[in-house]
Amino acid sequence: MAVPKRKTSKSKRDMRRAANSKYVAPGYVKCPQCHEPKLSHRVCPECGYYKNKEVISVNE
Predict the structure, then answer these.
(1) Which phi and psi angles does 51 have, rounded to 5°?
(2) How many Cβ atoms from other residues are within 10 Å of residue 23's Cβ?
(3) What are the φ and ψ backbone dihedral angles of 54, each rounded to 5 degrees?
(4) How does the average pLDDT of the chain come out, rounded?
(5) Which domain of life is it from (predicted)?
(6) Which of these, 9, 46, 6, 10, lies nearest to 28 by C-alpha position?
(7) Distance between CA atoms of 37 and 35, rounded to whole angstroms?
(8) Tens of pLDDT along 9-27?
(9) Which DSSP letter does residue 38 get?
(10) Domain map of the chain by residue range?
């Protein structure tokens, strides 16, 4: 039967448990062109603009 040789410290135990709490939902920002929510550092799917330049043309 496997038995731990040393007691696991509170710090090591908490570091192991904290690994699952690092995941967060992605943050949305408001597009400066159309004011729709979009993921940051990505082309807006509504208007096709990125950094105030039209990157893709979106059919409306």
Answers:
(1) 55, 50
(2) 6
(3) -80, 120
(4) 90
(5) Bacteria
(6) 46
(7) 7
(8) 999 999 999 887 777 788 8
(9) E
(10) 26-60
